[in-house]
Design brief:
Elements lengths: L24 E11 L5 H12 L9 H27 L8 H21 L3 E10 L3 H10 L2 E8 L6 H16 L6 E4 L7 H16 L7 E7 L3 H5 L4 H16 L6 E6 L12 H10 L4 E5 L8 H17 L4 E4 L7 H14 L6
Parallel strand pairs: 1-2, 1-3, 3-4, 5-6, 5-7, 7-8
C-alpha cells in the first residue's frame, strides 16, 4: 500500500499553516483488461455487466443493447463464464490467473524501475474492469505525491476496445483529481524489436522441447468486428505486422506461420480467419501437428487458458488433429519484462534520466 504521508513537508517560504505537500514522484500505472472477483454468479454478472456495457466494446445503441444485455445475456452468461473461470482459477490465492500474472509483472517492473531511477518512481497496476479499479489506483498515486503519471495499457496492439477504453478510464479518473498530475499514455509496441525477440524466444524454447516440429504455428489474436477496421481501427494491420516480423525473426517462410482471430461475439462478421474454424481446416488439410500462440495478450487469461487450450484445441482434435501445443503468453518472463521496461524508459524521457 502506498503511504500518502511519507516525505510530506510544508513548501519552502510558505506560511506555517500551509498544507504539507508530498515529495514529487513519477507514477507508472500498468493496466490490463480486468478480472471478476470470483467465479460465482453475482461476481461474474457484475464483471460482465461492466465489460459488456462499455460502448468501446459493444457500440450498439444502448436503447437496443441494454435490454438484451440485462434481460437475456446477463441471466445466462454468468453461469457459463463462471464455469470457464472456475476451470482455470488460481485457488491457492483465490484469484484469476490474469491477476496473479499481472502482480508478478508489476513486481518485476517495479524492481527494474527502482534499480534504474531509485525512489523517484512508484509502480502499480490496475484493471479496466473489476478490481483494482483505475480510479482507485490513480487516487493512490496522486495521494502518494505523483505529479506525473505514465499510463501503460498492457496491449501490444492498439484497438478501440482495449487500449482506447483503458485510456478513457484513466482520463475519467484524472477528472476527479483536485491537483491533476501531468499524464502520458504509452503507444502500442506491436513492432518493438525487444517484444518481437521475446516472442521468438518463447517459440524457440517451446519447439526445442517437442519431439517433432509442428507443421505450422497459428498466431491467434483476439478478434474485433471487421466493421471496426473499415472505420479506421488499426488493430488488424498491427496484428499482421507482428506476425510478419515474428516470421522474419524466426527465419521461417509463409507456410510455417499463420494469423487468425478468436473470441467472436454476436451476429456481426469479425476479422477472419476465425481461429476455431481455421485449426479444424488445418487438421482436415493434413496439418496434424500444430502450435498456437497468442501475441496480443501480455498475460495468460480466460481467452488463452480456457478458450485456446480447451475450446480451440477440442475443435482441432475433433477434425482429426493429433498434436496440439499451446505456447503460453510472455507473462513475467525476464525477456518480456526487459522489453516492457524498455518501452517504459523511452516514454519517461524528459521526466526521468
Amino acid at each position: 500500500m502506498l503511504d500518502a504521508s511519507q516525505n510530506a513537508a510544508c513548501p519552502a517560504h510558505a506560511e506555517p499553516d500551509h498544507p504539507k505537500v508530498k515529495a514529487p514522484k513519477v507514477g507508472i500505472l500498468l493496466s490490463n483488461l480486468g478480472t471478476p472477483d470470483n467465479y460465482d454468479y453475482w461476481s461474474m454478472r457484475r464483471y460482465l455487466n461492466e465489460f459488456l456495457s462499455d460502448r468501446r466494446v459493444i457500440d450498439y445503441s444502448p436503447w437496443l443493447w441494454q435490454p438484451l444485455l440485462q434481460l437475456i445475456i446477463l441471466t445466462k452468461r454468468p453461469f457459463s463464464s463462471g464455469a470457464a473461470y472456475q476451470s482455470i482459477w488460481n485457488e491457492k490465492d483465490n484469484e484469476s490467473p490474469l491477476l496473479t500474472i499481472t502482480k508478478a509483472q508489476t513486481a518485476k517492473i517495479k524492481t527494474a524501475m527502482q534499480d534504474r531511477y531509485g525512489d523517484d518512481v512508484i509502480v502499480d497496476y490496475c484493471m479496466r474492469y473489476g478490481n483494482p479499479s483505475t480510479k482507485s489506483k490513480v487516487r493512490a498515486l496522486t495521494e502518494a505525491g505523483c505529479q506525473k503519471i505514465l499510463f501503460f495499457p498492457l496491449y501490444p496492439h492498439y484497438a478501440g476496445a482495449t487500449s482506447a477504453t483503458a485510456n478513457d478510464e484513466f482520463f475519467r479518473a484524472l477528472i476527479e483529481e483536485k491537483w491533476q498530475p501531468v499524464a502520458r499514455t504509452v503507444q502500442p509496441y506491436f513492432d518493438d524489436p525487444a517484444y518481437i525477440d521475446s516472442l521468438a524466444q518463447s517459440i524457440e524454447r517451446a519447439y526445442a522441447d517437442l519431439e517433432k516440429k509442428p507443421d505450422i504455428l497459428v498466431c491467434s489474436y483476439h478478434g474485433v468486428p471487421i466493421r471496426y477496421l473499415m472505420e479506421g481501427d488499426p488493430y488488424h494491420c498491427q496484428c499482421q505486422k507482428t506476425t510478419r516480423l515474428l516470421k522474419e525473426r524466426l527465419g521461417w517462410d509463409d507456410t510455417e506461420i499463420k494469423t487468425t482471430f478468436q473470441s467472436k461475439f454476436g451476429p456481426e462478421e469479425w476479422l477472419q480467419p476465425y481461429t476455431v474454424e481455421e485449426v479444424a481446416r488445418l487438421a482436415e488439410a493434413g496439418k496434424k501437428n500444430i502450435a498456437v500462440c497468442a501475441p496480443a495478450f501480455s498475460a495468460d487469461c480466460i481467452e488463452t487458458l480456457e478458450e485456446i487450450n480447451e475450446e480451440i484445441k477440442e475443435s482441432f482434435e475433433h477434425a482429426g488433429g493429433e498434436a496440439f501445443t499451446y505456447i503460453p503468453c510472455l507473462n513475467d518472463d525476464d525477456s518480456h519484462i526487459a522489453a516492457l521496461s524498455g518501452v517504459i524508459e523511452r516514454n519517461l524521457a524528459g521526466w526521468l534520466e
